[in-house]
TrEMBL record:
Keywords: Glycoprotein, Glycosyltransferase, Membrane, Signal, Signal-anchor, Transferase, Transmembrane, Transmembrane helix. It is a single-pass type II membrane protein. The keyword Membrane applies. This is Hexosyltransferase. The keyword Transmembrane applies. PROSITE patterns: PROKAR_LIPOPROTEIN. It comes from Durio zibethinus.
Length: 356
């Protein structure tokens, strides 16, 4: 079994090279409609799950602690259609982590699908992970149609219920979408000083929040005052550090649900699970360095056009938007940024091919 070590120099030079290429060859779109995505195109039967290569073993550096407080908890959803993305995300974290043995993964799954869990197990034999069943009935009645069908999948809302699903001894968790790779030590994100905040994420204060809510919201004398006394900024819910303890004590699940219920009665926004998060928390989060969510690489919500990297250092690349790197690579029409995802792809074949 080979032992892989994080190779950030390699990534850095690759990024440098690619950003030059990107400047020359891609079309830039101006929309900042970066939201996470979950597409369920069909529900493949377990036997149709793709086959992945086994990831190598990763071992802790000498500086790693052995106390329970040294453990890093990561939560992600687990879905057959995004499995290839999940595998790449996990591999990227193990590969760049200083203490890979101390990562604990918590996967939220809409069905109790033993095949998904065994796929993770055979790809990452040494991974410490737990699969939880997310009861989609919790949200089914609360989801209203958004502008993109993929955003309306119940599992997309699972992040709201993290604090209820995770064991009580988990006090902090990093929630991550499945369409991203981490190219830095995730421990640095884990160690962010949350101050007294319940949620930490990069903030984008230049984004005009007005556009995320409709006229029914802004013309209502009470609703339109929701953000009064705060300086609300857009944040992407695909990368969040959550103080689950504070979330539980503050009853945040209920607060987010209440906005979803209002949306169901009286349409006040266009997107899926993002706006209720903004309504409850925008202007009251811990701002994390932008390097932790280079989002929008999947392009816009309608066409998924190629997007540039934003300037500045990068610790996490996120293909939010319609396009997904594995689909574009398979279609042989990848965007330049998709080549940054490819090194983490563990996909070997679908079961239709002969095995080696
Ligand atoms: C971190 O990993 C080391 C090495 O495997 C192990 O000895 C230690 O107990 C781990 N700490 C936690 C909190 O899991
Ligand atoms: C795996 O992580 C859990 C916490 O999520 C911990 O209780 C358990 O001891 C860990 N198992 C191993 C083998 O480190
Ligand atoms: C935000 O968008 C609204 C609606 O298009 C516009 O009226 C408002 O001036 C914009 N605000 C800023 C700060 O650009």
């Amino acid at each position: 079994m080979a032992l892989w070590r994080a190779s950030s120099i390699h990534i850095a030079s690759l990024l440098g090279l690619l950003s030059c290429l990107i400047l020359h060859y891609t079309t830039t779109t101006t929309t900042v409609a970066a939201i996470r995505a979950r597409t369920i195109i069909h529900n493949p039967s377990p036997m149709e799950l793709p086959i992945f290569r086994e990831a190598p073993a990763f071992r802790n550096g000498d500086s790693c602690g052995s106390k329970e407080v040294d453990r890093i908890h990561i939560a992600m959803t687990l879905d057959a259609n995004y499995l290839r993305g999940t595998m790449a995300a996990v591999l990227s974290m193990l590969q760049h982590s200083t203490c890979p043995d101390n990562l604990s993964f918590h996967f939220l799954c809409a069905y109790s699908d033993a095949e998904l869990a065994s796929s993770i197990k055979s790809t990452f034999p040494y991974l410490n992970f737990t699969v939880y069943r997310f009861d989609s009935n919790l949200v089914r009645g609360k989801i209203s149609k958004s502008i993109r069908q993929a955003l309306d999948q119940p599992l997309n809302y699972a992040r709201i219920y993290l604090a209820d699903i995770l064991p009580a001894d988990v006090k902090r968790v990093i929630y991550l979408d499945s369409d991203l790779v981490v190219v830095d030590d995730v421990g640095k994100l884990w160690d962010v000083d949350m101050e007294d905040k319940v949620l930490g994420a990069p903030e984008y204060c230049h984004v005009n929040l007005t556009l995320y809510f409709n006229n029914a919201f802004w013309s209502d004398p009470i609703l339109s005052k929701t953000f009064q006394g705060r300086s609300p900024c857009y944040f992407n819910t695909g990368v969040m550090v959550v103080d689950v303890d504070k979330w539980r004590k503050g009853g945040y699940t209920k607060k987010v649900e209440e906005w979803m219920e209002l949306q169901k009665q009286k349409r006040i926004y266009h997107l899926g699970s993002l706006p209720p998060f903004l309504l409850v928390l925008a202007g009251n989060i811990k701002a994390v360095n932008h390097r932790w969510n280079q989002h929008g690489l999947g392009g816009d919500n309608f066409e998924g056009k190629c997007r540039n990297l934003h300037p500045g250092p990068i610790s996490l690349l996120h293909w939010s938007g319609k396009g997904k790197p594995w689909l574009r690579l398979d279609s042989r029409k990848p965007c330049v940024v998709d080549h940054l995802w490819a090194p983490y792809d563990l996909y070997r074949s679908s079961r239709h091919f002969l095995e080696e």
